[in-house]
Structures
1.
Amino acid sequence: MNKNLGQLTKKKQQLDKFRPLSKDIIKNLEEWLKVELTYSSNAIEGNTLSRLETAEVIEKGVSATISGKALKDQLEAINHTKALELIKNLVEQRKGHQFVKEGDIKSIHKTILTGIDDQWAGKYRQTDVFIRGVGVEFPRPNEVAYKMKQFVEWLESQQESHPVRIAADAHFKFVSIHPFVDGNGRTARLLMNFILVLNSYPMAVVRNEDRTKYLEAVNKGQTKGDLQSFYDLMELSVERSLDAYLNAVEGKLPLGPLTKGIRPSDDVLEKKLLKIGELAKATEETIHTLRYWTKQGLLEVREYTKGGYHLYSPSMINRVKKIRQLQDEERLTIIEIKRRFSNNK
């Protein structure tokens, strides 16, 4: 076992000492991961929703008011969340990665594409696939079903390898078959996480901020047979989630978005961050107003709750008061206020 996998095993053993986790901790972690996984996985594939917009869609569904964004982007967020719930249910049925069925993979894919491309949701492609600039030959359409049968048989045979390596290999092998017309990347990452959870590891987030590294690592594996960069990135993703779980169960630190790392900066730890309701109370503004100002870019979100909602620095109290002052005394518009703040930086 290499050093990275050994480190992951030790951290999992630390986490196992706290099992079973309390219902509150599980709920908070799942809500946090739901936003991180959905945002990052969809963004890697070109979805334009921000993390905050993704959280709003997860909470409100298609009724969420996301201006200037395609309905397809919102449906992708909703469907990914449903796919995570599906995996949660499948984990109870399968009990181990050796028991994952081909139908499970099709069901995950069908959930991802429902309402977006119903014709091919959960169905193998019947056309060749080419990805511009990749230079990889994927199996012909008439080979896909057989390749997927082999894939499931391979997964069933994996008894001795480290679970994280099995999950990473499954991810790579699946995306290299590219069995579906669309949604292969999202399905591959969900399948990887399905296998991780079946082996009592937390789900891992492949961050959108690592998109270029991720795609290059996959391509390097496909064209040169060198998977080390891919393994390194997947193992780092698993370690981040393990660290987040350990922090949560030990009550050390609040969870934040993975783009900022697991640990908040020291100045955040020294100050109490404010929920939007607390900021509203401190400034005598409505929550609706604060949400609107945040969406317009007048207020900065410093961290997020476990469910992906706003946490503000105490410095935003003065910012809110300044915005109100500029509106009441100088009659400035939102655009003019943004320009004023920009000029003062």
2.
Amino acid sequence: MGTKREEVAALRAAVQSAIVGQEQVVECLLLALLCSGHALLEGLPGLGKTRSVKMLATALGVELHRVQFTPDLLPSDVTGSLVYRAETGKFTFDPGPIFGHVVLIDEINRAPAKVQAALLEAMEERQVTVGGETHALPEPFFVLATQNPIEQEGTYPLPEAQLDRFLLHVEVGYPSRESELGILRLVRGEEQKPTKPEGGSIELIRAARQEIQTTVKIAENVERYIVDLVVATREPKQLDAELGSWIEIGASPRAVLALDKVSRARAWLEGRDYVTADDVRAVAPAVLRHRLLLAYGAKAKNVNATRVVAKLLDVVAIAG
């Protein structure tokens, strides 16, 4: 039996072996899991978003609970509902698919606002309230949602409150030419003899979280760098005129907490017990891109949130 870090590295390798060309996506999913957060995967259909989540659940050795979001979905289809039992003459709670360790919300931006609202309590409070009674969700509880780009027909932008519940917003792009060749060979091999990654353990994730929390340190200058990055999104004009014309509303204090958590988890995965500025810069796009409200000037110039964060990292320097 290796160290917790070695076991998590083995789990990561198992998932990556089944998801060719999306190493960054797999790393972000693992970081969110280690930080007890949720992740939003955005990309065009067919890029492996759903497959990534399935392989992660398989590697963890847990059942994947999947909900396909559609325009006619009801909140009770997600959270569960009260059901009348004739044999007892009473109403009992019938849990919905949200009651699972790993929950895949497929195409989250195709459902109406009332369904999105039903997820808020579950994602933030780790509980569901139905009929005046509160029901705790399993621990760990990990929501992985996929969405198509909002320009796609039949999609709707997620409300800011919903977006802010996600620890990471991961962009899923096209694989390289060599990776696509690897995908072809991988799927062909699976058709001949199905393979799955080795089973992992929920207990391993719990132990890894505890180790990250107690062993990974962060220096004061790196802490200040994290705060400076987030504050810069609220006062962009003081740093750069162009950046000021791109950002209408900056990130909330929740972004500071998220940068701290994810940076420490990345340092731990890299084999260190301390956080560097490079850790912060590496995770900043996924942590910040969904927490910024872009101004009309950015939209008019086709400037997306990823480019805004890149500019932010260019103009904000770490002290000392």
3.
Amino acid sequence: MKSPFPGMDPYLEEFWPDVHASLIIYARDQLEEQLPSSLIARVEERVVFETETDETRAAYPDVKVSERTGARYSAAAVASSVAVAEPVIVMYHEPATETCINILEAGPGQRLVTVIEVLSLANKLAGEGQRQYRQKQRELSDTNVSLVEIDLLRRGDRVLSVPASLIPRHARTTYQVCVRRGWEPGRFEVYPITLRSPLPGIRIPLREEDRDIRLDLQAIVQLAYRKGRYRLTIDYDEPPDLPLRGEDARWARALVRKAKKRA
């Protein structure tokens, strides 16, 4: 089943960890078929740590320690004269694992050519995850590695490599993609994507002497939606977690009503 939205479905943000993982795998598979024989595409994992002391709500806490008084447990204490010490309750949450796509040269050394990032809330919310992402942007630029950044989230800050103030106003859209070629560090290719438009195909740079390959964003989002069976879990009668406003909200409700009539 297809999403009622022609492009990015704003309801998918609620399920972003699962959607993100699917988009990375489906994008890798799509690109792999177009790569020259001297290049390979690999999914890279990284661990993102967030602490609960960040000013913005932590998306991924690491370790939470909380002390509780013994009152809750005294009535059910051991029926014995032996004193029982009160434990400290420790709640542990595994640090989040995020993935991106690395395009590398095949053979010994495997020189890194291009990195493709699908942004997550850890990148876009102030905190350690965003700091790590900014550092990665700088390191890739310093080593002349091409970077493709795909932002399909409405929440959080815009953290693309190109400063937001440099993007023309007509291109400051709901969603954006930014491509920086490693051999042209001061030039950015920005793909503006509105809420109401289908997702575009974008050009993925390889080495300077290679022809670009193409990533069909709409195809991988539709595949993630279908494989994740999100139509069974999304309640389109309710607004998304981050509600739409004004004309966008009315437009979305009309889309949903039309989709229900077709079903």
4.
Amino acid sequence: MLSLDRQEAYRRRYAASRPGYRTAAQLFEALLLRHLPEARRALDAGCGRAGILQDHHHESRFLVGADGDLASLTDNSRLHGRVLAGLERLPFADATFDLVGAAWVMEHLAEPQVACRELGRVLSPGGHLLILAPSAWSPVALLNRTVPGRGQAALVERVYGRKERDTFPVHYRANTRGRLAAMARAAGLEEVEFHHVGDPSYLALNDLLYRAASLMERLTDPRPLRRLKVHLVGEYRRLIP
């Protein structure tokens, strides 16, 4: 089993060998910290049990989480507001939030284009949408897509030790740069910044596989092959009429 602690150890080892490297989570957090100080109201879209805003709950801005899973939402107790709702139908007025973050959410949506329109609708003009998601073309996602139904949860629990209650079906219908850009344009958003981010730890079941995955990261650094990186981080801005 590839535990989280073991993954983190491989990430530190990889970062030490590649100066300037940042994980997708670190890039996403940097974008979040860039825009959060100016946001009066922020939404964690698909917040789950922990989410991306819980460590900022002590600050003066109003932080809201929305999730369609009641059990996960109940455990998320550090936000100022929690709403039981799917992202395809958000119970908020237009232009409610200055910042919306969606981390590890897009891959689970059966109708991501509908959800993207809703996320754009609740953003104020000039507001930002931040997305962190796996790439549909990475080897990890391609392997996951070959496993039917609940077998995905069993595979994740067996390999990564993640409990089945925290594993949800994946579709990867929005998980490419082109698809995200198209959905953003349809929702009245423009792309500001985008990153394909590698991480060899997802395939590092042992040292040999870690070295092979690290080599693959270097081979996929050229722009035409970056889509094979495991993660996507994007920033989008609501257009001002």
